[in-house]
Specification:
It contains eight helices and 27 strands. Helix 5 packs across helix 7. Strands 17, 20, 23, 24, 25, 26 and 27 form a seven-stranded mixed β-sheet that branches. Strands 1-8-6-3 form a four-stranded antiparallel β-sheet, with no helix packed on it. Strands 5-4-2-7 form a four-stranded antiparallel β-sheet, with no helix packed on it. About 12% of the residues have low confidence. The protein is 21% helix and 28% strand. It folds into four domains: 77 residues, RNA polymerase II/Efflux pump adaptor protein, barrel-sandwich hybrid domain (OB fold (Dihydrolipoamide Acetyltransferase, E2P)); 102 residues, RNA polymerase II/Efflux pump adaptor protein, barrel-sandwich hybrid domain (OB fold (Dihydrolipoamide Acetyltransferase, E2P)); 47 residues, Irregular (Dihydrolipoamide Transferase), CATH 4.10.320.10; 219 residues, Chloramphenicol Acetyltransferase (2-Layer Sandwich). The protein is α+β, with helices and mostly antiparallel strands and 511 residues long. Belongs to the 2-oxoacid dehydrogenase family. One of its GO terms (molecular function) is dihydrolipoyllysine-residue succinyltransferase activity. This is Dihydrolipoyllysine-residue succinyltransferase component of 2-oxoglutarate dehydrogenase complex.
């Protein structure tokens, strides 16, 4: 007898939910009232218990699917003599490995990509058809318009089919691949001391060589980066747990290789004559989804907002002296270095209290004033510009701000920021000075109404007390939405930031 598992009543005015997590897989035994899966609504999380004891035959609604009230989630075969789980009958491509005898087919689905993200591009497959996979081993990497998402194997077995090849654009909850699960599936996998499925002879690499002999797998993103940079595993020093190579380790190895003495490089082969046709000397590379989104959002900002920029300059001498005097004590006590960003973040938080429209946004015909500051800190990464958000920055100390910026920056460089960490910002700071920019006009990060551009600190002759002296000066630029922020408010904001930085004691006294 088969018992259906359906979506329970979700509550007043709640008509649908998203399947967040399955705690069981097809073929598993279940007891009455044992938790099968978890649903997420816009209000609460709902656990779904098993209505009967038996075997979970199949899962109808996979993780990430949106389901309505009373929708069918799964089927349970009651009693001890429950039938084996059924593989879903779907049309399969011709090129695939045979499913393992007696193994259940488990679909690999696109995971939940995040709020407002509906599709992704398959950037890299770390496994090929016929490979053995362990549960939670990384199968592929997806690239969305915000972050990269690694997809783990939902079960151990053999990868029998890849549905979405590299470069394919897939929607949320689309099928990526099929795994023949169970112990029997391992028989179809290559043996570590024999012949590969295609008849190719190979041996097991020694431990530490990045091959199957290692207990610790390098990060899939790092493997991809090593392949792109043409680096072998022994050319990269891993900084992760137990020597695991991370993406940042590969970047360091590439940088070290590029700074090596030219004399150590082998003699270059004679160059072929340059073809006359310019097209033959061009390289065409498809824009990443992140770069496409950056381009679209920046153009939308120009088309939608009335962007205007006002400038000022600040004498950084007082901040530099204070930082120099206390940086060692600060790092010793708080375990993080004292940088300039905490001063700018604090100064902006104080200025936003006085000029709240710079921390507001337009929603239709309404102006939404934010009585908090979620500070976006723009950061450049190899994949493009991202803006992690420091939440409630106005309530944080200098040390808390520095720790948050340091942690978010590292996650951004490693490509590990989640969508949630880049959403909800109310104001943004962009530091072009780290790249040597002397002056520029930053562009708004919608729906925010203001962004502060920092620039390079440069010694310039200034008149102080009737005398020409050399002072460390920085140009500041505030771009703002003139639909909501008037010129007076923008200038006042920038002057308050300047005053706070030129006399940092004002920050301590909340002036």
């Amino acid at each position: 007898m088969t018992t259906e598992v359906r979506v329970p009543t979700l509550g007043e005015s709640v008509t649908e939910a998203t399947v967040a997590t399955w705690f069981k897989k097809p073929g598993d035994s279940v007891a009455v009232d044992e938790m099968l899966c978890e649903l997420e609504t816009d209000k609460v999380t709902v656990e779904v218990p098993s209505p009967a004891a038996g075997t979970l035959v199949d899962i109808i609604a996979a993780e990430g699917e949106t389901v309505g009230v009373d929708a069918l989630l799964a089927n349970i075969a009651e009693g001890d003599a429950a039938p084996a789980p059924k593989a879903k009958s779907e049309k399969k491509p011709a090129a695939k490995a045979p499913a393992a005898k007696g193994g259940a087919s488990v679909d690999v689905m696109v995971p939940t990509l995040g709020e407002s993200v509906s599709e992704a591009t398959v950037s890299t497959w770390f496994k090929k058809v016929g490979d053995a996979v362990a549960q939670d081993e990384m199968l592929c990497e997806l690239e969305t318009d915000k972050v990269s998402v690694e997809v783990p194997a939902p079960a151990a077995g053999t990868l029998t089919e890849i549905v979405a090849a590299e470069g394919t654009t897939v929607e949320a909850n689309a099928k990526l691949a099929v795994i023949a699960a169970g112990d029997g599936a391992a028989a179809a996998a290559p043996k570590t001391d024999g012949t590969a499925a295609e008849g190719e002879q190979y041996t097991t690499p020694p431990a530490g060589d990045g091959g199957p002999g290692r207990d610790i797998e390098d990060a899939p993103a790092a493997k991809k980066a090593m392949a792109e940079a043409d680096l072998s595993r022994d050319q990269v020093t891993g900084s992760g747990r137990d020597g695991r190579v991370m993406k940042d380790d590969v970047a360091k190895a590439v940088a070290a290789a590029s700074t090596a003495p030219a004399a150590s490089a082998p003699a270059a082969a004679p160059r072929a004559p340059v073809p006359a046709d310019d097209a033959a000397r061009e390289e065409r590379v498809k824009m990443t989804r992140l770069r496409q989104t950056i381009a679209r959002r920046l153009k939308d900002a120009q088309n939608t907002a009335a962007i205007l920029t006002t400038y000022n300059e600040v004498d950084m001498g007082a901040v530099m002296e204070l930082r120099s005097e206390y940086k060692d004590l600060f790092e010793k006590k708080h375990g993080v270095r004292l940088g300039f960003m905490s001063f700018f973040t604090k100064a902006c938080c104080h200025a936003l209290k006085e000029v709240p429209e710079v921390n507001a946004e337009i929603d239709g015909t309404d102006i939404v004033y934010k009585n908090f500051v979620h500070m976006g800190i723009a950061a450049g990464t190899p994949q493009g510009l991202v803006v992690p958000v420091i939440r409630d920055a106005d309530r944080m100390s200098f040390a808390e701000i520095e720790k948050a910026i340091n942690e978010k920056g590292k996650r951004a460089r490693d490509g590990k920021l989640s969508m949630a960490e880049m959403q909800g910002g109310t104001f943004t700071i962009s530091n072009g000075g780290v790249y040597g920019s002397l002056m520029s006009s930053p562009i708004l990060n919608p729906p925010q109404s203001g962004i502060l551009g920092m620039h390079k600190i440069q010694d310039r002759p200034m008149v102080v007390g009737g005398q020409i002296v050399i002072r460390p000066m920085m140009y500041l630029a505030l771009s703002y939405d003139h639909r909501i922020v008037d010129g007076k408010g923008a200038v006042t904001f920038l002057v308050r930031v300047k005053e706070a930085l030129e006399d940092p004691r004002r920050l301590l006294m909340d002036l």
